[in-house]
Design a protein that fits this description.
Elements lengths: L1 H21 L5 E2 L1 H11 L1 H22 L4 E16 L6 E20 L3 H67 L5 H35 L9 E2 L16 H11 L1 H21 L5 E13 L5 E3 L5 E11 L6 E10 L2 E3 L2 H7 L2 E9 L7 H67 L5 H35 L8
Parallel strand pairs: 1-4
Antiparallel strand pairs: 2-3, 3-5, 5-10, 6-9, 7-8
Helix pairs in contact: 2-4, 3-4, 4-5, 4-7, 4-10, 6-9, 7-9, 9-10
């Protein structure tokens, strides 16, 4: 039991140590740091990197597929019983052991350019996967920027709510003194007290929204929820708020040339067209060439073999008889017999049985169950689908840019209107506050003026960050980095 406890302690301790080694020590994040960290640790980015690596391997395979193949092999067998002696071609009842060895090579001389087009297709697929990786990184950067700006927005909302709570608390204390002096009815105190409670609730809600915004960014960065996080607030200057200076058509023209989503769609369309050519290669004949060497060993081989370069003698050998009994007549033949022999050792036999071969093969497709035409038809559908996906990607990009351009224009108008509204309502609130302090305005008038100002300030902050984010989106489509500098 002690050993088990120690083992668990070591395992858990090792896990904690490993996690501590991997967890970042940074608690203050700039937008650039957050984007770079997410690009390195986001799971979708990692999966896209694996896709690139897979296509690199496939491209290398298609390159080597153009080279000849080279294979070697060996076999061994042992048999008992009746079998044909390969040296005498006579059936014998014996135990035979044998081995064989081969080395062969095969090369495709022509197959309708299928292998060449496959190589070109894999090159396009690799480039498309690289653009897919860049597109995923762009999406991650936009998501991180959205979460980052959302934190800035909620931090400013929280600061505004805390300021309103402090002002309400001061007003509550002032009202208490006026009620004690008899300048205001006691009901005014309770109404202001209710306003203070409402402002405290607003602070709590703003704090919760801020924590949720931070949690969203932590999840994008693959950080634990309890990881401390502080955002470095950038210097954002909004001296002039207006519609974006570049028209949506010009932005689209730039984005169409630079966006990796469009590049990947273009490459996949070209790849699918090569797929049609690859499938059409099934209509063409195939020419292949083969070469190799073989040798074998058998235990039935004779004990001696003619020595290489041996001289031969002519022997007369009887091979049978002719005629009828009793007048048989022998039949003779002349055979050349070597005069110099060598021991038939294992390696001598392998050398003696060595065989070399070269062949060229032609395969002409005539009818193969409509398979070639089916593959061509399917590849054309794939090509048409790739063309539609390319068109869809361009349409979606254009619509996104047009929408973002209108959003910037609307955000600019909303920002200016909210700014003017805040300025007017702030003056109205100050006037109402003075009247309330002098007793010429009721607490209802004061609370209404304060509520109107609170809503206007929240709308102003929201319009401000809406404008900031939408302009950053258009900057992104123009190829500019997502920063606040």
């Amino acid at each position: 039991m002690k050993k088990f406890s120690m083992l668990m302690l070591l395992l858990l301790g090792g896990g904690v140590y490993s996690y501590a080694q991997q967890a970042p020590v940074n608690t203050r994040w700039t937008l650039q740091e957050a984007v770079e960290y997410a690009s390195r640790h986001n799971l979708q980015v990692e999966q896209s990197r694996l896709d690139v690596m897979s296509n690199q391997i496939e491209l290398k395979r298609s390159k080597f597929d153009l080279a000849p193949t080279l294979n070697a092999g060996a076999g061994a067998s042992y048999s008992v019983g009746r079998s044909i002696n390969p040296f005498t071609n006579v059936i014998e009842d014996a135990a035979i052991s044998s081995q064989n060895y081969f080395l062969s090579s095969n090369v495709t001389l022509f197959n309708g350019f299928s292998k060449v087009n496959t190589l070109r297709q894999n090159q396009l697929d690799l480039r498309a996967s690289e653009y897919d990786l860049a597109a995923v990184q762009n999406d991650v950067a936009l998501n991180v920027a959205t979460a980052f700006i959302n934190i800035l927005f909620n931090q400013e909302l929280l600061a505004s709510a805390q300021a309103r709570q402090e002002a309400s608390q001061i007003q509550l204390e002032r009202t208490q003194r006026q009620v004690d002096a008899g300048a205001l009815p006691r009901a005014s105190y309770f109404e202001i007290q209710a306003q203070v409670a409402g402002d405290q609730l607003a602070v709590t809600n703003a704090l919760n929204a801020l924590e949720l915004a931070k949690l969203n960014l932590k999840q994008l960065l693959q950080l634990p929820a309890d990881q401390p996080m502080e955002i470095v607030v950038p210097q954002i200057a909004l001296d002039t708020v207006q519609a974006y200076e570049v028209a949506s058509t010009e932005i689209y023209q730039v984005a169409e040339e630079n966006q990796p989503v469009i590049k990947a769609a273009e490459l996949r369309q070209s790849s699918s067209e090569l797929g049609v050519l690859i499938s059409r290669s099934g209509y063409w004949p195939t020419i292949t060439a083969n070469a190799g060497v073989q040798t074998a060993y058998s235990s039935l081989a004779p004990d001696v073999l003619p020595r290489e370069g041996s001289a031969f003698r002519r022997d007369t050998v009887a091979i049978g008889f002719t005629g009828t009994e009793p007048d048989y007549m022998p039949v003779y033949t002349i055979r050349q017999q070597p005069v110099d022999f060598q021991d038939n050792t294992y390696f001598n036999q392998l050398d003696y049985n060595l065989r070399r071969f070269v062949s060229v093969n032609l395969n002409i497709p005539i009818f193969n169950g409509w398979s070639a035409r089916s593959r061509v038809g399917q590849s054309r559908i794939v090509a048409e689908r790739a063309r539609l996906q390319d068109t869809q990607a361009r349409q979606q990009l254009r619509q996104t840019i047009e929408q973002a351009s209108l959003d910037v224009q609307a955000a600019a108008l909303s920002y200016r209107a909210s700014q003017n509204q805040v300025a007017s309502l702030r003056e109205a609130y100050r006037a109402t506050e003075q009247r309330f302090n002098y007793g010429s305005a009721t607490s209802l008038d004061f609370n209404l003026a304060k509520s109107n100002l609170d809503v206007a300030e929240a709308n102003f902050i929201r319009a401000k960050y809406e404008y900031i984010f939408k302009t950053k989106v258009l900057d992104f489509y123009l190829g500019k980095p997502i920063t606040f500098e």
